[in-house]
Backbone:
DNA sequence: ATAGGGTTAG
């Protein structure tokens, strides 16, 4: 190996005029070669060369550490650093420290980061060595328990630069504290630090995650003014911001104007459309493929979610096939999306199959499976899964409590559900939000414990919103409690006067009591509030086509045989002795919906 | 000759 590089070195003209190699020149050339080996992914060759080098100076050691890190071999990088410190010949310099800190970040080891920090203090390589200070901030911000240590380092930096600010902002954003991140972004501008593409893209991401369209637009204007429109990460984050703020047509406009696009650009737009127009998301994917891009895990996750939203089982299965072909089926997020898709398409067994074949799971995996079970009426299974999850050492969050509570509600496991509600507050100190209260009201209400549900609302530490009152209203309607029902409906309407369902329900309560005048008055109020009831729409997939239909749908090319299919469950229900309860039907409006 | 922060997935 060493012969190789000497041969190579001899053929390469040196910048220096010296005609022969001294040791120093050879070492420099060896380090050069070391670097280019890593850049080509030739890790083995780099290691052999390093092992054969007679003199290894601090630069060579540092090149090894950053080379391994470049190739994502973080543990190897760390081992080189340990060997270097042990050998005591070449003490690490600021370059070494910042390189090895990046390796610590790759290992997600704040412990190793702390050791390096201690060594850096001992060798007086902190405060004033901006690369070291910024790298320290970065490891504490990304891997620390909180932002505290990162802040301590930040405040001790006398001359902060854009990188210091950006690292701090990114730390808060990635931890989900985007408003703090944006505060710091403002502070940065006030202190006179100039924004650059890096700081802009993280600030825009923060805007996107809290839906701050206003600030997002301001930053977009600044981007145009300063000519950063050609920077891909910047434009991708702006695209994402418009998507998350619900400005899809604008997002598409800027997408079309982009001269250069990468896979992330396409993925961002597909994910944006998936949330509100899943069919369009699938069309954009087809365009993406004809543009020569191949899908990755991110693309597939959005496509699977789109199929889930559309309840398009066949399409979802085809996408699943594509995932398999590319060997992407081990991806955690993708598996989570598949669990959800199969459950939403009515195929709970395939959902469970994906779940059970996963080699590692996160909170989302468990939650998706529980939501699936709950929606299919498998309350007991959801409850068992929840207990198993807690036993396996995963700490539940509000979303998974929501999943298990809603499963209990649908399966009529009232006391079980109430136990989880109390456990959430007492053992995990999670404060219930509107959604959780709504779920518990629903849980009590379905079981006929409507008075208890009302008392729960009265005991809430904040004002119940229209969805909580709506849950109570539903319970009142199911159990014919007209007095409390009227109260719930009025409360809900006071909070959201344009909720059609509430008017219809209230009107129906009056109608059921024979108070036709009041019932008609509600209808008029509803018209005045300018709202119209969306017809309840159902859909069915037959032979790779999704058909949607409403009650009383008569014309259409395919509706006749869809109706035929639909008669089957009706017949089964009749055979089982089911008698429809006619006074529960929502009274039709004049326009026939 | 060796070191930096940014974009997509519930």
Residues:
């Amino acid at each position: 190996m060493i012969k190789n590089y000497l041969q190579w070195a001899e053929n390469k003209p040196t910048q220096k005029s010296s005609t022969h190699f001294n040791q120093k020149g050879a070492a420099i050339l060896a380090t050069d070669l070391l670097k280019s080996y890593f850049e080509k992914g030739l890790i083995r060759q780099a290691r052999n060369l390093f092992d054969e080098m007679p003199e290894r100076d601090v630069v060579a050691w540092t090149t090894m550490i950053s080379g391994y890190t470049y190739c994502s071999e973080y543990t190897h990088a760390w081992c080189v650093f340990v060997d270097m410190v042990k050998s005591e010949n070449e003490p690490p310099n600021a370059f070494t420290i910042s390189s090895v800190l990046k390796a610590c970040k790759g290992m997600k080891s704040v412990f190793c980061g702390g050791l390096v920090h201690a060594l850096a203090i001992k060798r007086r390589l902190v405060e004033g060595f901006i690369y070291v200070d910024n790298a320290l901030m970065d490891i504490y911000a990304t891997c620390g328990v909180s932002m505290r240590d990162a802040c301590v380092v930040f405040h001790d930096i006398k001359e902060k630069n854009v990188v210091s600010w950006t690292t701090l902002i990114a730390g808060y954003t990635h931890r989900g504290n985007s408003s703090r991140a944006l505060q710091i972004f403002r502070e940065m501008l006030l202190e006179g630090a100039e924004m650059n593409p890096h700081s802009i893209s993280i600030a825009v991401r923060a805007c996107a995650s809290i839906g701050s369209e206003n600030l997002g637009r301001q930053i977009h204007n600044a981007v145009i003014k300063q000519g950063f429109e050609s920077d891909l990460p910047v434009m991708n984050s702006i695209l994402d911001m418009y998507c998350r703020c619900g400005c899809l047509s604008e997002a598409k406009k800027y997408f079309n104007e982009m001269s250069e696009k990468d896979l992330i650009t396409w993925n961002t737009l597909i994910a944006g459309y998936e949330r509100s127009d899943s069919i369009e998301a699938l069309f954009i994917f087809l365009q993406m493929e004809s543009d020569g891009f191949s899908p990755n895990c991110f693309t597939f996750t959005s496509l699977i979610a789109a199929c889930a939203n559309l309840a398009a089982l066949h399409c979802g299965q085809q996408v699943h096939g594509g995932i398999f072909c590319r060997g992407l089926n081990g991806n955690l997020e993708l598996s989570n999306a598949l669990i959800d898709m199969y459950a939403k398409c009515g195929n709970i067994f395939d959902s469970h199959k994906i779940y059970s074949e996963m080699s590692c799971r996160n909170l989302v995996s468990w939650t998706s499976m529980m939501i699936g079970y709950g929606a299919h009426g498998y309350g007991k299974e959801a409850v068992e899964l929840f207990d198993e999850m807690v036993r396996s050492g995963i700490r539940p969050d509000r979303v998974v409590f929501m999943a298990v509570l809603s499963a209990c509600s649908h399966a009529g496991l009232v006391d079980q559900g109430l136990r989880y509600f109390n456990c959430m507050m007492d053992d995990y100190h999670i404060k219930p939000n509107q959604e959780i209260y709504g779920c518990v009201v629903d849980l009590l209400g379905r079981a006929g414990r409507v008075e208890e549900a009302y008392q729960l609302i009265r005991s809430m530490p904040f004002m119940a919103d229209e969805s909580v009152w709506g849950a109570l209203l539903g319970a009142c309607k199911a159990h014919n409690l007209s007095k409390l029902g009227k109260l719930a409906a009025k409360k809900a309407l006071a909070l959201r006067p344009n909720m059609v369902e509430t008017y219809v329900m209230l009107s129906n309560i009056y109608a059921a009591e024979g108070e036709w005048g009041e019932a008609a008055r509600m209808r008029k109020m509803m018209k005045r509030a300018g709202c119209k009831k969306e017809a309840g729409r159902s859909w069915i997939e037959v032979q790779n086509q999704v058909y949607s239909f409403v009650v009383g749908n008569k014309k259409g090319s395919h509706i006749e045989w869809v109706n035929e299919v639909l008669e089957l469950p009706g017949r089964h229900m009749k055979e089982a002795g089911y008698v429809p309860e006619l006074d529960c039907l929502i009274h039709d409006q004049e326009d026939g919906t």
In short: Chain A is about 70% helix and 0% strand.
